[in-house]
Structure prediction request, 247 residues.
Amino acid sequence: MEYFVDIHCHILPRVDDGAKDEQETLDMLRTAWDDGTRLMVATPHWNRERGYTKSRREIAVAYKKAQRLAQSIHPKFRIYSGQEVAYDSSVPEAAARGEFLFLGNSRYLLVEFSPVDGFSRIENGLTQLRMQGIKPVLAHIERYDCFRKEPELAERIASLGVPIQINAASLSGEHGKDYGSCSKAVLLGGCASLVGSDAHDLKNRAPLMRDCAVHIANRYSESAAELLFRNNALRILKNLPVEPVSV
Ligand SMILES: [Fe+2]
Prediction:
């Protein structure tokens, strides 16, 4: 694969539990660039319970800094804005009012739930968002207990028209057997649309995609890897429907 697009990462300095300062942002960007990523969508947390409620304006300042740092690495390195919004009952209307940063300039919004939320809460939340004209993308499906217990429930999310994202390190098995087997089951069921790094730092959750992409290309197909690690992310940024990934 020529290059990757990372739709989920916490590279902005000092806005959440991702990069702690500009130096760490720069180091993460350099690692991602060297690994083959050419476009990153910065998705800092919005999570009322955890106290991540920075305004769009504050995020915009950090976003501009990250863009400048990316440009210092290479003029072709692109950073787009976004947010990872933790669902609560206020989110659908707030999203419809435009209070969150969508992925690029699309109508897609990266949404996460609590790991212990039940399936019906996740399904209802995504449905509520869609009723408000928002296109949710479900972040890291393998991190929710309900899908690890019953990965086939992913089919019901996919049938809502919601793209499903998996973390690269989970798919590679680096986050343990349970996360690995759930990720694989969702992929084999034809329900995964995207892989992102969900990078937070360089040590534990680094912005790396290549090893996982190469593995998927070798084990399944180059075309599946291209959709998961690049083309579906590009489609989302253009507000187009994702393409199904069959392996
Ligand atoms: Fe995240």
Remarks:
- The domain at 4-237 is CATH 3.20.20.140 (TIM Barrel).
- The longest strand covers residues 4-9.
- Residues 8, 10, 84, 139, 198 surround fe (ii) ion (CB under 6 Å).
- Residues 33 and 77 are 8 Å apart (CA to CA).
